[in-house]
Amino acid sequence: MSSPAVPDDQLKLEFETPQFLHSLFANDPKEVNYIEQSLGVRVVTRDGWILFSGPRSGLDLAKKLFADLEEARRSGASIQKRDFRQAVDMVAGKKSRGLADLTATRLLGSRTRKAVIPRSPRQLDYLRAMESHPVVFGIGPAGTGKTYLAMAMALCRLKRGEITRVILTRPAVEAGEALGFLPGDLQEKVAPYLRPLYDAIHDLLEPEEGTRYLEDGTIEIAPLAYMRGRTLANSCVILD
After folding, report:
1. Per-residue confidence of the chain (240 residues) as pLDDT tens digits?
2. Is 165 helix (H, G, I), strand (E, B) or coil?
3. 197: closest CA among 228, 175, 226, 166?
4. Are residues 193 and 141 in the same domain?
5. What is the CATH number of the domain that holds 149?
6. Which CATH number is 21's domain given?
7. pTM score over 0.70
8. Are 77 and 103 in contact (CB under 8 A)?
């Protein structure tokens, strides 16, 4: 990215190809309108360049925004519309962290599985807390990534050899579905209640890898009622 000399109230950024530039704003030219609304600058883009006009403060924010987007893109991140708008919001809010800070934190990932990347500064704080503290409480609404990120961190530490076992537990409580009598052994009886944990494992690990870990007990999923008196040495325990 280069910044040719232009008048003080303008900023022009040039990139090697139009395709790379478009990938920075989720391949949707309409998203430049969000920059104008959030940063208070006018935006014109053609081919491989983008021109900002407006007050110096807005131009400085625009330059920081595209520096973050470029760094994230060159590190291998695929920028979606949600990522782009979040990057704009973080810059507009003058927060100390940008998109590059989020994409620099990657967990797991393989040939067929995307790496897990925090989607917000709060999620980044959550991951860093799990890295540096033995006990972490995650509190928030459903669907904000509490269990998923905890599992990603646990599996990452398992693969690094820092722990030897991952234990996932949650209360076997019906959520209005009235399952009634369930046949089978303990594992089969509680499986419907623990389905979200199995889904996360299959999403994070290769199929054969997840199956192997479950079969040999490296990953254990159990209802909370059966955890009393357990010895959990060298383990990561997730209570959902």
Report:
1. 655 555 558 899 999 888 998 888 888 888 888 998 888 899 998 888 999 999 988 898 899 888 888 887 877 677 888 878 888 888 887 555 666 666 667 787 766 777 787 777 788 888 889 988 989 998 888 888 888 888 888 988 888 889 899 988 877 655 444 445 556 665 666 666 677 777 888 888 888 888 888 888 888 877 777 778 888 888 898 887
2. strand
3. 166
4. yes
5. 3.40.50.300
6. 3.30.1370
7. no
8. yes
